[in-house]
Design goal:
The chain has about 250 residues and is of the alpha+beta class. The chain has helices at about 5-30, 35-50, 125-140, 150-160; strands at about 55, 70-75, 80, 95-105, 110-115, 165, 175, 180-185, 205, 210, 215-220, 225-230, 235, 240-245, 245-250. Helix 1 packs antiparallel against helix 2 (about 35-50) and helix 3 packs antiparallel against helix 4.
């Protein structure tokens, strides 16, 4: 668990704002007929124009698999996370698209994700997006003096499951700082009062991933894309949060 120095705390706040601005430019491009590769190109150009590097590009997984080739993950409809941008993959009216993006700036990293509609979407898809987005805010609100990791996951899962949706369990939030992914793990489920205490100076990425149906997942043939096993829609939201004075500072807001 990395406790950020005063200097790194200021840098991660700046990195978070650069990441937010870059993602905003990508979201503007989401419309029918646009390729997922185009979204990736916009993201990389925006990050680099602000002095950042895309922290996902050439990311090497812990299991030694092939490096991630792109600057963002673009996951459509039943795809949960880690979707690979592709020039032949075009967005269609009615799709929902999860965009996960990370930045590295002067030795610190930030991470965030949103799910956005492509044109007009179904009321069921809109409810899924709204519920997932709200669950992230509920998770962030659990951060207070003495809070533990389990408090976050408990609150997120309670809200999601009450809405009739499934909480993805295989993929979770994480600590962040000098590296894109580090301790502690921050699941979107758990028990109150359990897990590590959240100290000042810690930065974490909270990222609920939610399925309209069952929570079980299926790995894609490309070695990266993860989808719902039952083919139901999925949504994903994420913020990087710095803890200061026992309170959450959402650096990617």
């Amino acid at each position: 668990m990395e406790i950020l120095t005063k200097e790194k705390r200021e840098l991660i706040k700046k990195c978070g704002q650069y990441l937010r601005r870059s993602l905003d430019k990508v979201v503007v491009e989401v419309k029918p007929g646009v390729s997922t590769l185009r979204l990736d190109e916009v993201a990389e150009a925006a990050l680099r124009s602000l002095g950042c590097e895309p922290s996902f590009k050439e990311y090497e997984p812990r299991d030694g698999g092939r490096r991630f080739p792109s600057s963002i993950c673009v996951s459509i409809n039943d795809e949960i996370v880690h979707g690979l941008p592709n020039i032949a993959r075009l967005l269609e009216e009615g799709d929902i698209v999860s965009i996960d993006i990370g930045a590295r700036y002067q030795g610190v990293c930030t991470d965030m994700a949103v799910t956005v509609p492509v044109g007009k979407i179904s009321s069921a898809a809109a409810k899924l997006i709204d519920t997932t987005k709200k669950s992230l805010e509920i998770g962030i609100a659990q951060i207070k003096p003495g809070a533990k990791v389990g408090d976050i996951g408990f609150a997120i899962a309670k809200y999601i499951e009450a809405a009739g949706f499934g909480v993805i369990r295989e993929y979770v939030g994480h600590g962040i700082g000098s590296q894109p992914h580090q301790a502690p793990s921050v699941p979107n489920f758990g028990r109150k009062g359990t897990g590590e205490t959240l100290p000042d100076g810690l930065a974490i990425a909270i990222e609920p991933m939610v399925a309209a149906g069952d929570w079980r997942t299926s790995a894609g043939e490309d070695g990266w894309t993860v989808s719902t096993a039952d083919g139901s829609l999925s949504a994903h939201f994420e913020h990087t949060i710095l803890i200061e004075d026992g309170k959450p500072v959402v650096v990617t807001r």
